[in-house]
Write a structure and sequence with these properties.
By secondary structure, the protein is an alpha/beta fold. The protein is built from five helices and five strands. The longest helix is centred in the first third of the chain and has 15 residues. It is globular and about 55 Å long.
């Protein structure tokens, strides 16, 4: 074990501190910055749901469990808009052809009638995603982020 002689809470705190140093917008390039960027995007929205026009947002599990931190897939959240309507949010960074089906599965498992927002950098919105979303029984709305999503302001989320 890497931290065999260190009590678990202290070992975990050490790992969190190590990751926190490199998972910041101003940090130098590091391999940990590349892991699960969709989770980082979701974290931005969890800390400020108003970026996408919501009043509240909390973590939610994806319909399919990841086997490894290296696996890609939508990072899911569940919240409410200003009218009190339920909203399922699916975050993605990079081209993910499974994004729309994964987002739809998450909505189905959380609340099948909730609005579905798919949030991703504008450069990653592939035409195939629009085609897949058009086939959903209940529509999804895409919210794109212009520029660096790690530091984007509210007006960059459209």
């Amino acid at each position: 074990m890497v931290h065999g002689s260190v009590p678990t809470p202290e070992a975990l705190a050490s790992v969190i501190a190590s990751v926190d140093r490199v998972r910041r917008p101003e940090a130098e390039p590091h391999p940990l910055r590349q892991l699960a960027p969709e989770g980082w995007l979701r974290w931005r929205l969890l800390t400020d749901p108003s970026l996408i026009g919501l009043t509240e947002l909390r973590f939610a599990e994806a319909a399919l469990e990841r086997e490894s931190v290296k696996d890609t897939g939508a990072a899911i959240a569940f919240g409410r808009d200003h009218e009190g309507n339920d909203v399922v949010v699916a975050c993605s960074v990079g081209i993910d052809l499974d994004l729309v089906p994964s987002a739809a599965d998450a909505r189905f498992s959380l609340n099948p009638t909730a609005q579905l927002l798919i949030v991703l950098p504008s450069r990653d919105l592939h035409p195939a995603a629009h085609q897949l979303a058009a086939q959903l029984a209940y529509p999804a709305r895409f919210v794109t982020v212009d520029g660096d999503w790690r530091v984007a302001r509210a007006e960059q989320f459209t």
